[in-house]
Amino acid sequence: MEPIKTGILAYGMSGRLFHAPFVATNPGFELYAVTERNKKTATERYPDVKSYNSVDELLQDEAVELVIINTPNNTHYEFAKKALEAGKHILVEKPFATSSAEAKEVFDLGRQMGKKVMAYQNRRWDSDFQSLKNVIEGGELGKLIEVELRFDRYKREPGPKAFKETPVPGSGISFDLGPHLLDQAISLFGKPLKAFKITGTNRPGSKVDDYLSVHLIYPEGLNVYVAASLLCAEPLPSFVAHGVNGSYLKNRTDVQEAQLDKEILPTDEQYGIEPDGSEGKLTIVDESGRRSTEYLTALPANYSRLFDAVCKYIRDDEPFPVTEEDIDCQLEILESADA
């Protein structure tokens, strides 16, 4: 099979950590080109990669088959359309777009051009979330009553990235961490019957939302809560599930980002393995009221599985796990008015 010649539109943190290592180590791809507007650093690690000065230059390269769109949030829609019109398949970072209308237009254009359109939702392949998913799908908790997914940080000062911190489309915590959390919930339970969203701005001098809470209501009495905050000094467990038979609690313990930052490759034997003490806590109560507690070690995680799915979708037309309906549901919730 011919490797998919791949271009990455930005080689900042996202390109350096979340894309280039996986494209470079997966035999289904060839890391062919990147865009670097200022510092030219990609060739230090990938000597054979082409470094273009602009997005347009990369898109004009006829050899590029797949484009990874990992530019600022408010440019995803524009560059997705440009890449499709240039005859490229696209993999678009979160948020896929800043509105469901934009997303629909991109997916429709992909069909018109005969090209694959994919959403990069890597947190589906986090070890901590996979652990929660395994417990829920295993059925030990019985009928689910409540599930909570959180992403808590403490960052009092606004960050340096203007597209996240100024009031432009796709800014704020809703479009930064919200897509991760909502995608995880949707991947588990599908589209909710109802969704109620609340945002808040609490950091001194902040111009965008830095707090998000969404209540998702599902059939059979299941309530799912997703929340993100930039002013949480003592984070709560990131994954909590309560069922009629017991509960499961898990902290956010995925190590992939930290390992990638240390240039540990996804092919390394130790990649994606959580350290001791990161286990999730499963508590089950039997019919006699007796409690049993088990500490579960998460299986190794690897975002390479997402790139495997990209390859299979492009080469073999196998369905991509993040569907158009998933993205539409996510964005409809994010763009809805606060409850």
Work out the helix count.
Answer: 12
The H/E string reads: EHEHEHEHEHEHEHHHEEEEEHEEHH
Major beta sheet summary: 8 strands, mixed
Unreliable residue stretches: none
Radius of gyration: 20 Å
How many domains is the backbone divided into? Answer: 2
The appropriate CATH architecture of the largest domain is: 2-Layer Sandwich
Oligomer: single chain
- Percent helix range: 25-40%
Distance between the termini: 50 Å
Short characterization:
This protein has twelve helices and 14 strands. It has helices at residues 13-25, 42-45, 55-59, 76-85, 100-113, 127-138, 162-165, 172-176, 178-189, 256-261, 304-316, 324-334; strands spanning 4-8, 29-35, 50-52, 66-69, 89-92, 117-119, 144-152, 194-200, 211-217, 223-229, 239-243, 246-250, 280-285, 291-296. The strands form two sheets. Strands 8-9-10-7-11-12-13-14 form an eight-stranded mixed beta sheet, covered by helices on one side. A six-stranded parallel beta sheet has the order 3-2-1-4-5-6, with helices on both faces.
